[in-house]
Amino acid sequence: MKITVMTADEQFITLDVDPDESVENVKALLEVETSVSLQQQQLLFNGKEIRNAERLRSVGVGDGDLVMMMRVSQSQPPRCDCESTGTILRSLKFEKERVHGDIIATVIASATTNDLNFNPDGSAINPGAFQEHFKRSTDLMAQLLQNDPQLAQAILGNDLDRMQNLLRERHQQRLELRRQQEEELALMYADPFDVESQRKIEAAIRQKGIDENWAAALEHNPEAFARVVMLYVDMEVNGVPLKAFVDSGAQSTIISKSCAERCGLLRLLDRRFKGIAHGVGQSEILGRIHVAPIKIGNIFYPCSFMVLDAPNMEFLFGLDMLRKHQCIIDLKENVLRVGGGEVSVPFLQEKDIPSHFLDEERYSKQASQGLGSAPESSGATVKNENLPSGSLVSGTTHNSNTQGADFESKIAKLVELGFDRGAAIQALNLFNGNEEQAAGYLFGG
Fold it and tell me: 234: burial class by Cβ within 10 Å (0-12, 13-18, 19+)?
């Protein structure tokens, strides 16, 4: 409802308040409008003073009534000696009220003047009459559509259950806002030497900074609140079309057992590389497929895979193959460039990605992190059951007897032959540091 306040200097101020608002909160609003402190205000209605603890409805103040504000000389109670703290708390209070209070006050005030009441939980007693009242009022619907389109759509769409739920939510927001207002008002006049009060003031100031940062993000970076769709491209593995999850944070390219079987590759599974991938959770490594053709665009490329017993993940194109085939993730053009740019394939839009893939991204990430993804690579280890003790398929820890300048030089020679470092380390560990056998193994694979 709207009330008019006349000050001692004959200034008229219109306030939009709730009928059940406390007089103290009305004075707080007037403090912002007139710069007259709450303690120096005396409010009169029909010639009688109304007290801080009283509610407007209980003293008979209704929509359109006139209230007098007198200024009295009175010493203020102890306040925090930091004026900026009070300003911050007041601005926080009224900023929240603008966000949540205006539309709720409009609803309640309108309902009250039309003999429509609410249940204790905030829902309308007669939802049909409440809905019809708003539908008949063009001005109210325009205000609702601007300030609370969710509630407006529920009313216009004849969804009474949704409307009631939204009214309950708004009621809870209002109760929470009122509780916060009371706490903030108490802090404004708290003992500046009280440790607990200072702690609460500090928390309120910190929260205001967070709220301002959130508001700035909504204005300048709204896409940060939207869902980010992961990168998928169309590929063919051994002639079978797949939608590949491109993940530069995964150290190895991985394929599920079911997908490998569907692509006709399970017969090539080398179980000597069986093990357990430890990272975020763990997955069983069934083995490795050393080479198979993948088609990206119109060109075929050789690719090797780790085969995981991961039913929630199909195919993940990892950093090993991204490096090997000189891939470029071009987010400006939204394409994956392969072979230094000889082939470009577009990343799939969300509508082109099967819905169950979007739900499985979490599982794919867990599987890839078990194979040494960026967040867990320093601690992820994949132990191979059939390799010499201390050797690893993936990770950062190697048997101490294979480390040293001699071992590094052997790795360097294999890298010069065109193999990636991880594969060279695997081969050398497999053949106990024998460089020739390792090279023959890599060329044969």
Answer: middle
Mean pLDDT of successive 10-residue stretches along the chain, which has 445 residues:
81 85 87 84 84 86 84 53 43 42 51 62 82 78 77 81 86 83 74 78 84 84 78 91 89 89 90 74 82 92 88 84 92 91 90 71 48 36 38 35 65 78 80 76 66
Q: Was domain 232-384 assigned CATH 3.20.20.70? A: no
Q: Which fold has domain 1-76?
A: Ubiquitin-like (UB roll) (3.10.20)
In the chain, where are the structural domains located?
1-76, 83-226, 232-384, 398-444
CATH architecture of 398-444: Orthogonal Bundle (1.10)
- pTM here is 0.45
Contact predicate 57/20, CB 8 Å: yes
Is 65 known to be catalytic?
no
Active-site residue identified among 247, 309, 352, 420: 247
HEC profile for the chain?
A: CEEEEECCCCCEEEEECCCCCEHHHHHHHHHHHHCCCHHHEEEEECCEECCCCCECCCCCCCCCCEEEEEECCCCCCCCCCCHHHHHHHHHHHHHHHHHHHHHHHHHHHHHHHCCCCECCCCCECCHHHHHHHHHHCHHHHHHHHHHCHHHHHHHHCCCHHHHHHHHHHHHHHHHHHHHHHHHHHHHHCCCCCCHHHHHHHHHHHHHHHHHHHHHHHHHHCHHHHCCCCCCEEEEEECCEEEEEEECCCCCCCEEEHHHHHHCCCHHHCEHHHCEEEEECEEEEEEEEEEEEEEEECCEEEEEEEEEECCCCCCEEECHHHHHHCCCEEECCCCEEEEHHHCEEEECCCHHHCCHHHHHHHHHHHHHHHHCCCHHHCCCCCEEECCCCCCCEEECCCCCHHHCCHHHHHHHHHHHHCCCCHHHHHHHHHHCCCCHHHHHHHHHHC
